[in-house]
Amino acid sequence: MRQLNRIALLFLASLLLIASSCKEPVVAPDDYGIFSSQDASTAIMNGELNSQSPQYWKNYLSAYPNTTNIIMKNCPGSSDDDSTLFVAKEVRKQQVAIHLPADAEIASGAVDFYLSGVVRTREAGSKIGVHSWGSGRREATDYPVGHENHQPYIDYYKEMGFSEEDAEAFYYFTINAAPASDIHWMTDAEIEQYKLLVE
């Protein structure tokens, strides 16, 4: 009987361990994740956006409420589009300027984040990469123009100050520029054409 109880306890402990490992880890109040401070008004952003990015930004802003600038460096994209658009809208509320230094590389969802800056600048040499989004076995280009699956991105661009025409133009450019498994690095002419910079 004692042996059975011990086996049952070990089994229960294993289940609890598995269950706890499936949960998102708790973000400590002093954990800023991909954000770090250059000074009281300037945040440095490095890394991939994910489901914890909204909490990271909230924590960062709590510690540095006078943040007016973000410098994006190596930001390869996002593993969670919903969280990316959410945190980008929160950044927009803060009315920050976002800058890309010469060695910056941003791509995919990080480009959407970049558009949250009320002022958006870049130095020569910085790279902006776009491609189609993918979900399971399907990509954005599998859906016809005007499909409801495209609308959240177009609406987001409009919320960031793009006209309807410009939002649609940039969105459809991105999804046709490269498949989800690849990346298209925008030329200076394309960056100007699609109005990514705001000074």
How would you describe this protein?
With 199 residues, the chain is an alpha/beta fold. The protein contains 7 helices and 11 strands. Strand 1 and strand 2 (42-45) form a beta hairpin. Helix 2 (53-63) runs parallel beside helix 3 (81-93) and helix 5 packs across helix 6. The longest helix is centred in the N-terminal third of the chain and has 21 residues, at 2-22. The N and C termini lie far apart (75 Å).
Put simply, the count of helices is 7
**Which H/E pattern describes the elements?**
HEEHEEHEEHEEEEHHEH
The computed structural class is alpha/beta
Query: What is the alpha-carbon Rg in Å?
Result: 20 Å
State the end-to-end distance.
Answer: 75 Å
Shape: globular
Q: Which sequence of strands runs across the widest sheet?
A: 1-2-3-5-7
What is the number of beta strands? 11
Q: Name the poorly predicted regions.
A: 1-23
Report the average pLDDT across residues: 90
The main pleated sheet reads as:
5 strands, mixed
Q: Determine the strand fraction and express it as a percent band.
A: 15-25%
Instruction: Summarize the amount of helix as a percent range.
Output: 40-55%
